[in-house]
């Protein structure tokens, strides 16, 4: 595949011009009608049970999107505690060629991987990170409370997406993500913010250098990416086998996630003038894959950012200083 940024959105996702059926049938609840009368806690258990089929987890998440998802607590979002540690992050320069070759079939270029170099050591104090990305329902509350005009472009005509309250919000600008965190901090008196790049990578990998939150090999069924997913966002937490070592959901797919940091080279590294840098100049670093992108973007070390294109499904999750 050529550089995805030179292709149409569909071509960059590996899709032909004809319709491609993905995910459940046109009626995702037809085979799972028993879930329609289930309690919310039962639905959550099904949605987060790796033994269940994807179709059944998706159905449970869909019902939760209609009846109300108890995992969504806007003023008290579920958080995972991440202990203080000195961790080694980043990629050894000797690995750039191998990583690029592994993902060349989806258009990955060496410059994109070189941004992950070199390996560096950082001491991080304890922090907390949200178990799920910020959802449409949470972002709607922010819009209603503040009168912000930062409407997600994924809400067609800026209109609320019925039944998708428990899907991650996308696409918003990094300044809107910052504003949401600041608003929630002021509202609750807690120190919510976006995670730093280093915090995000540590929370995703557990600090052991693994390539993906679940291990070394890319497994399509563990994340909502273009290889396996329904080519749209999915309800939070329905890829439980893809959880990070700290029990955090959706760090490898669904939507890309802004961090608090703008791009700069790691300590001892050199700046990489890839197409993002040339096109945007300074840009906010995002982490994690998305439903529009392939598994290369789901790697824990991968550093990327936002172009103003629909294929860039930009969301965010919160961190908190204890």
From TrEMBL:
Please state the span of the N-terminal signal peptide per the UniProt entry: none
Q: Which GO terms describe its molecular function?
A: formylglycine-generating oxidase activity
Top-rank taxon, per record: Bacteria
**Which InterPro entries does the protein's record reference?**
CTDL_fold, Sulfatase_Mod_Factor_Kinase, SUMF_dom, SUMF_sf
Domain Sulfatase-modifying factor enzyme-like: where? 109-319
Annotated PANTHER family: FORMYLGLYCINE-GENERATING ENZYME, SULFATASE MODIFYING FACTOR 1, 2
Task: Tell me what this protein is called.
Answer: SUMF1/EgtB/PvdO family nonheme iron enzyme
The source organism is Streptomyces daliensis
């Amino acid at each position: 595949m050529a550089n995805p940024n030179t292709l149409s959105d569909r071509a960059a996702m590996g899709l032909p011009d004809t319709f491609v059926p993905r995910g459940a049938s046109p009626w995702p609840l037809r085979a799972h009608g028993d879930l329609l009368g289930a309690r919310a806690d039962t639905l959550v258990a099904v949605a987060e049970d790796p033994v269940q089929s994807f179709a059944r987890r998706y159905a449970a998440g869909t019902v939760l999107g209609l009846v109300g998802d108890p995992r969504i607590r806007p003023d008290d979002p579920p958080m995972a505690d991440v202990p203080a540690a000195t961790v080694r992050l980043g990629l050894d320069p000797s690995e750039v060629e191998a990583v690029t070759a592994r993902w060349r079939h989806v258009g990955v270029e060496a410059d994109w991987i070189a941004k992950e170099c070199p390996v560096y050591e950082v001491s991080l104090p304890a922090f907390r990170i949200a178990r799920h990305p910020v959802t449409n329902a949470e972002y709607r509350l922010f819009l209603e409370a503040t009168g912000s005009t930062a409407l997600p472009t994924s809400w067609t005509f800026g209109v609320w997406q019925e039944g998708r309250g428990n899907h991650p919000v996308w696409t918003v600008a990094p300044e809107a993500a910052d504003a949401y965190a600041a608003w929630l901090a002021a509202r609750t008196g807690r120190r919510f913010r976006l995670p730093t790049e280093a915090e995000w990578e540590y929370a995703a990998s557990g600090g052991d250098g693994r390539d993906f939150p679940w291990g070394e090999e890319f497994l399509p069924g563990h994340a909502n990416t273009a290889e396996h997913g329904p080519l749209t966002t999915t309800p939070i937490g329905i890829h439980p086998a893809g959880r990070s070592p700290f029990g955090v959901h959706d760090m490898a797919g669904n939507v890309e996630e802004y961090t608090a940091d703008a791009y700069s080279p790691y300590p001892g590294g050199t700046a990489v003038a890839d197409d993002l840098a040339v096109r945007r100049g300074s840009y906010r670093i995002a982490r994690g894959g998305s439903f529009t992108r392939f598994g290369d973007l789901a790697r824990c070390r991968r550093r990327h950012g936002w172009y103003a294109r629909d294929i860039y499904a930009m969301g965010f999750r919160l961190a908190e200083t204890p």
